[in-house]
Amino acid sequence: MKSAAKKKIAVLGGGPSALVAAFRLTEEPGWSDRFEITVYQKGWRLGGKCATGRDLERSKRLYEHGIHGFLGCYYNALTVMKRVFDSLERPADHPLPDFETAFHGMSGVIRYEMDEGAIKTWPIYCEPWWHRLDECLGREPTLSEIVSEAPNLARIDTWLLGLIRLATGALRQAWAKTYRNGATAGFVLKTGTVPPGGGRPSVSDPASGRYDLRIEPGMKAMNEALGRFAQAAQAALDGKDFRLAAETFAKGHALFSGIVSAGGGGAGRDRLRRLGLLLDYFATLLRGVLADRVMKRGFAALDAEDHVDWLRRHGASDETIRSPLTSSTPNITYQYPEGDSLQPPVMAAGAYLHWTLMTFTYMGRFIQLFEAGSGETLIAPLHEALERRGVRFAFFHDVKALRLAKGKAEIDRVEIDVQAEVKAGRYAYAPYVDVKTEVKGARPLPCWPDRPLWDQLKKGGDLRDAGVDLESFWCDIKPAERLVLKRGEDFDEVILGVSVGALPFMTRELEKRSRRWRRMLDESRTVMTQAMQLWLNETPWDLGWAGYTNTYDDYLLSANFMTQPNGQGDFTKYIRYEEWPEGHRPASLLLLCGTLPFYGKVDGTEGADFPARLTAGVKARSIQFLQATGGFMLEGATVAARKGYGDPFAFDFDLLHPAEPEGTAPKRGAARFDDHYWRVNANPSDQYVSTPPGSTRWRLPAHDTGFSNLFIAGDWTENGLNVGSMEGSVRSGLLAAEAVLGIGREKSGVIGLDPRPPAP
Predict the structure, then answer these.
(1) Predicted pLDDT at 558
(2) Which of 176, 289, 392, 574 has the lowest CB atom count within 10 Å?
């Protein structure tokens, strides 16, 4: 009996969602007997917005598109990456041998606020949360063990309990600080109860169960109030009583904000004020979820409303709305119209609430950062796993158009410009360079270069000498070949993993045929982003970084500092995966990233030099940013702090580590910035997808594009979360693969696709 022919799947684009879709397909038993999968990727590397490159002329330094990391609530992203690393079974001498090594956790972030006419740092610490696994195991669980809990956590009611837990912890911490004795404070913080008294003044004796119960001067009434609210919050948590929690938090906010408004709080004013804001914010979220019946109706029911209007409707104070608590979600997900942070952010209320609530129930650590950069920690393992399984990769294949069959709603042809021919064959490009690392006993790490490996290409020398950028949307070189993929010969089904910003240029026929497709494109919004990387001669700690704890996982990370680029992070760990000359290693690496204001509409007529013009502007603004705000970011990094006099606000550019040893003629001042890295993400496919009110209803799901053999993948699709993120990308990739496999959404394996609790 003749076996059925393999179904040919053309995956267009090599970003995270496309790679995850291919990975999910190859997890099916016997997949290679059913499918033949080919990934078509423009340029020389995979990764989309997570693509990285190594500068082959400057110590193989790592260049990111921007700041990337996982939140601890990325249930699907972390789960998939665990499966990826498990499938690789890398040897022990690999620099990134396993899932545990690939990520490092951190427990807090810094937010900035304006208060009393001053910029203040607001450290936010989220203690590790092992979901009782530590009690069962008798030790701290591994990341793999805690990630296994993901399916149990992705529910709205569980997220609300996580919110109440965090608020209870904040109340308890403030309560503990009102006691003079450290042992007493520790007992209160751990148990949420007052220990037995009887210790001698200023002495506690935990061994005998006696504690010093003296309270800080003038804090007796505050001690009683904080204890009352902490215990009420604990009762709400134990009883899973969301209304009681909302009422408790609202009363706490009224009391503490009233004290601060009356001039009270003393030295602890900021702590008390921030506690009041936290309680008001959490009370608002709880009230809103209950009043709008979100656990029954879902988040999408709220998406026509803006997030701030929703918060106001449910009673949030103006001070809370202005606070970093409210702005964190739209800041970290770039919800500024036209990328202009001088405009207030706008965001669909349901997407805002979904993302925000999810963050409160994290797995282990609040944030999981990548050990060696996005390209090496995420994208290379995905690529390696897929290549081992037999998936083919066609690099330098720029998708130009999807064509429809005559009179049918199906893809008939895919037109592709082959940018360059690989000498060894279409699917034989070897994309990596080896980088020696500081990991003791480890082999070199295969890494993505920041340019094509020209010697593998026909006429590669000519392309190199012409200075072409094969990733640029505006690249105008003549292609080596126009390839036309034909349905029934080269593909049967298509997974379109190109980001939505580029789709108007390659899906014109689809737009004409389908009103839904056209409306999806019309209602989508993307923004350009900008980034810079600074290698420094000193660490953030040396330069005044205070942190939020003094523990090993205390890294500088913020997402709302002043103007753009307002995200900042300490990524010094990446340096050990670079090749600096002996004796010339930098002390630290800072990444800064944010939106780029752009009010025009990219239409392809801007000219090949358009990215260069934008990039020159980013360089000038980056230097200006450091000159104007460096002292607010790191107070020890100013000219005055380092030289003893001079500008008290401007960044001292002498801190910038030169790319090579300087010799006798070092660069001076802002000229030292030339040795560092800055970029603009202007390509339509590189732009960040935002979620304005009313937009999510027009997103299409992976399985229902209106075209019978077309499935879509990307954080721009309807994937339940609908917020630009790696978690959204992974969800969409899984959904696209399930659509190909014929798995309906009601049987989807996506964690938290519908996070509503089951009906009683």
Answers:
(1) 83
(2) 392
Rounded to the nearest 5°, which phi and psi values hold at 170? -65, -40
Q: What is the DSSP string of 576-605?
A: GGS-PPTT---SEEEEEEEEE---S---S-
Which of 717, 351, 718 has its CA nearest to residue 503? 717
272 and 158 fall within a common domain: yes
The 8-class DSSP code of residue 488 comes to: T
Is residue 303 over pLDDT 70?
yes
3-state DSSP of 634-695: CHHHEHHHHHCCCCCCCECHHHECCCCCCCCCCCCHHHHHHHCEEEEECCHHHCEEECCCCC
Q: What pLDDT, on a 0 to 100 scale, did the predictor assign at position 206?
A: 77
Query: Can you say whether the dihedral through the CA atoms of 223, 229, 231, 234 is positive or negative?
Result: negative
Cα–Cα dist 319/325, whole Å: 10
Counted domains in the chain: 3
Residue-by-residue DSSP string for 23-50: HHHTTSTTHHHHEEEEEEESSS---GGG
At 638, the amino acid letter reads: T
Note the pLDDT tens digit of each residue in 542-559: 898 877 766 656 778 887
pLDDT at 601: 87
Name beta bridge partners: 481. 418
Q: How far apart are CA 642 and CA 456, in angstroms?
A: 48
| Residue (of 105, 106, 83, 97) closest to 26 by Cα position | 83
Residues 603 and 478 in one domain: no
Same domain, 356 and 261: yes
Q: What is the pTM of this model?
A: 0.96
- Residue in the structure block whose two tokens are 């205390």: 554
> What CATH number corresponds to the domain at position 37?
3.50.50.60
Q: Are 531 and 65 in contact (CB under 8 A)?
A: yes
How far is CA 153 from its chain centroid? 19
Q: How high is the pLDDT of residue 561?
A: 79
- Check whether the bond before 565 is cis (ω within 30° of 0): yes
Backbone Cα Rg of the chain: 27
Structure tokens that stand for 7 in this block: 């179904």
**DSSP label at residue 364:** B
Per-residue pLDDT band for 759 (boundaries 50, 70, 90) equals: confident
